[in-house]
User: What shape does this take?
Amino acid sequence: MEVKKRAKIKSFPYEEFKDNETYEKLVQELNANGANVIVTQLDNLIDWGRSNSLWPLTFATSCCGIEFMAVCAARYDIARFGFEVTRNSPRQADVILVSGTITTKMAPVLKRLYDQMADPKYVVAVGGCAISGGPFTKSYHVLKGVDKIIPVDVYVPGCPPRPESFLYGMMQLQRKVKVEQFFGTTNKKQKEPKE
Amino acid sequence: MSNNNYFSGLFSGIKSLLVGLGVTMKEFFTRKITEQYPENRKELKMFDRFRGRLVMPHNENNEHKCIGCGLCQMACPNGSITVTTEMLDTEDGKKKRSLVKYEYDLGCCMFCELCITACPQGAIEFCTDFENAVFDRAKLVQQLNKPGSKVAEKKVAPKPEAAPAEKKESNPETPTTV
Amino acid sequence: MTLDNIKTLEPSQLRAEMQGLKAKGFDYLSNLIGMDWGEEGGLGVVYCVENTATHEQAWLKTATTDRQQPVLPTVSDLWDIANIYEREAYDFYGIIFAGHPDMRRIFLREDWVGYPMRKDDKPEEQNPLRMDNEPLADDTTQYELQADGTVTTKKNVVFGPEDYVVNIGPQHPSTHGVLHFRVALDGEIIRKIDPVLGYIHRGVEKLNESYTYPQTLALTDRLDYLAAMQSRHALCMCIEKAMEIEVSERVQVVRTILDELQRIDSHILFFSCLCQDMGATTAFLYGFRDREKILDIFEETCGGRLIINYNTIGGLMADIHPNFQKRVKEFIPYMRKNIKEYHALFTGNVIFQNRSKGIGPLTKEQAVSFGCTGGTGRAAGWANDVRKNHPYAAYDKVDFNQVLRESGDSFDRYMIRLDEILESLNIIEQLIDNIPEGSYKEKTKPIIKVPEGTYYQAVESSRGEFGVFLESKGDKSPYRLHYRSTGLPLVAAMDTACKGFKIADLVTIGGTMDYIVPDIDR
Amino acid sequence: MFDFTVVTNWIDALLLSFLPGWAATLVECVLVALAIITLYAVFAIILIYMERKICAFFQCRLGPNRVGKWGSIQVLADVLKMLTKEIIDMKNVDRLLHKMAPFLVIVASMLTFACLPWNKGAEVLDFNIGIFFFLAAGSIGVVGILLAGWSSNNKYALIGAMRSGAQIISYEVSIGLVMLTMIVLTGTMSFSEICQQQADLGWNIFRGHVPAVLAFIIYLIAGNAECNRGPFDMPEAESELTAGYHVEYSGMHFGFYYLAEYLNLFICAGIASTIFLGGWAPFHVLGLDGFNHVMDYIPGAVWMIGKTFFVVFLLMWIRWTFPRLRIDQLLALEWKYLMPMSLVLLVLMAVCVSLGLTL
Assistant: This one.
């Protein structure tokens, strides 16, 4: 099946992105039902807006949070993408960057934060801890991956990932946002976590 | 508060504010230090000691140096490495361990370098690739040995920086828990 | 340091002995470590008290073999910090401290089952992931040991029904991580703070007991990630001393330089975050701009920006990079220049001055009693620098001042850090041209086993005394590896420092205290 | 100087030629409203972009530069996103007030926006008590903020709203006094007459010399505080109260607060340029007729907007340099410094005017 929509990211050729297989699969799923021309155009416009305005929630539990601050700071400047408007209130944020270890005590809090966010909302698991428990997988008090409690859109490995990896992860998320359908199923999605 | 204090406080306060304004105004016109990733991808080069992800270098004949001893797996603090091996009969009738699958979980790795220091062969190393974000958790579990690859026949001397000096040339036949 | 003369006391003797020590000038309780010595040794506590005038240390231990209801006497009335340390021991080992006014769990959820650090406890089986909201009781229990050996309980109130309690945290921009303060307010004025910890308790100490020694090293970087060098340095030194490995001069000097760079890194981040918390976003970015220079130095030599992973048992992972000296020498004048900019932009600013002078003062007595080491203690005039008091690495070869101030308020705490950046630059300047030749790593056995015994090593980390307490039974993993957290005493002192000030001051005080939450929770 | 009434009169005549009087008025009202709303949105977008770029430049970084050339359409993306974002309905809130609050804020800010004189003859709301109306309309905004804080059923929001109430009410005192000072100088409360006077006699800041300059500074400080902008952003005080009174608002409701914040900044700067810097009046130097003549060729609207953006830049410069005040210091600043000073200025100005000491 032909891919109808393919996100373009400025200064980054499509072929050089990793994990294009999953991406193509995702695009096919989203485009399975097809859509008429006008709706597609509108969708493109809205997706363009959304993908360029992913305001992160200020959420950091440990080391990765410091790297996130470095990403926001002058040298890497996440503002170039338009993501510098970090919101402290989950209601106003679009993406939660889970940066740092999530302990079992923190897990309900994280879930609540996620629930408090307004749709459309995205989750990026940043760093080994958020992806799988990372260095603390064997601990009794650490959640082994946030995808156990909330659905994760992009995984950014590293311990902690360097600022460029952060930006790369955000671009992957942009690609994902850019193929969504507003007038379809995905606006009011209630994605279920794995397991 | 005496009147004197009131006014001197006011003026020194205003002065301090003006000094601050001066600093930011100066900064307004200095050159910006932002590095523009991804626009600078071509020029961007990581420091060579930067640990991006674990790789197993293969030579042009699709050969690697891993003998499947599993020391790295034992050294790893949180089980990011799984080495699967099988026993093969060599030509001279001896049993020899051979690597089947070297799985590495990038999503779990803590970049402590213990696997590399443990490796007697210098078969694994960190590369400086940092663009690793994916959509699917399963994609982070990578197989490091390329399909169809085999261990380099010639005994390669371990690279000096990858295998520290104190590591004795360990015997490949050492029983491991693999 | 090998601890071969820990004084063993019966629980009944403990209080008298402790009171005697306190009277003799041992006014700083640096460690209170819960222990599980198994069925025979029982559950117990190791204490370390230090005389702040002579820097003499006394180590004591006590234990009870009753595993069902282990009761030990409290020392929380003698040292303020013991309050929170004893709650930690209660949380992890279930040791009840008779007479302690507030015997609640501190790191784990109140509905947690079992005591995870006990050797026979299986925390994961008893505690599935609970996704319901965490219960937070408004009252607490005090246990009293009666003369006949029975234990009676009494209810103490934490927050009454008339208190207007605001939860600051666990998700809040100015708590520097997932710290949770329950704050009772009177309008904007703070009446009481009850810290709820453990949102980033990762069980590092328990993990250590199953890790081999090289593996334990990896976790120290992640405790206080702004003191990664120093924490790892402490653990390496502790193991090296236990195994009697002499590291070369070169390693000592390189470690010292890197420790100081790390300290500058941490203090710049302190400055940045304080500015951010107080609303001066621009100063925040200036700090980060300069910090990147240090991170480049780290990354080039060590391969990591934040999690550095450089020290190892017997030396360093790799020799310093050829560019190292050049970069550091470029950095020193650069930083000196930029410190002036910080002062012009932020220190002198009348708004900042008014918001920090006289805000949240800790007296010297309070700082000592709470064990607030590092800049916080030195701002109150307590000369607690481990580099001076118990020199290690190359610190006895360099000339530097211990920066001290008097009033212990937020402004002093802030100035101490900025002045320490300059001191650290001095230290680096003295060493950078004189790195002796030598091997960067001593040979060690492939499997590292520490001889049986008890060891302690403290370093001056970025925010105070970071201690490593190691008890070994001669295996390849430690029997108990405890870290003295630098941040826990600072959080414990928050209630005292903030009382009577406003919510906005909580941010200033918290910012100038300079704690790192993963280090508190471990 | 081009008089915009030529255009309005022409449109009026055109409409009257085929419509009855009431219908023409109605159409004109709609046209004006559309123009105001469009201008409002356009200026909000420009201001947000400007703030993000300027703040970046103060902070030695680049700011948005990937969406459009130089990131110029970044804010459009934000608006699109905000429009399609979910508005969360919450339990235990006071529904009506909660939904009404953002509209109150935006209405107040639009009403004051309509007071600005854009050009000679291009004032939307212009009557003899213009300044009075401006102050009154501006005060509706605080009701919106207080309601937002109260209805959200959130302690942070409540504290933020309380702070905001105390702050805005206090600073209105000095704004009022400073404006009174200038009214003493001009002798009129109508914005159009104030501007006309300045076009004829020179800018108020020069005419009123010392007291006017001081009044200008006090106005900038108090106006900044009125807009809840740093260093007076206590009600939002990110690091203390997460987002202050609008902590529970999402989607476009939050967007209204966001827009109103920037527009209030613009209005505050616009009023400053009207009252002190001559509004649409061009810059004239006495005696240099050639120069004055050239200045007259620049349209009044350009003068007005140019001056306003200059003041906006000043306010942004202040915002991105200073740390935030504490609430008690904020009130002390008002009641101990600004208010007495503006009282003194008022007297001083009255003396100057009665003795004919103005230029």
Notes: Chain D has one domain: 89-354. Residues 349 and 355 of chain D are 10 Å apart (CA to CA).
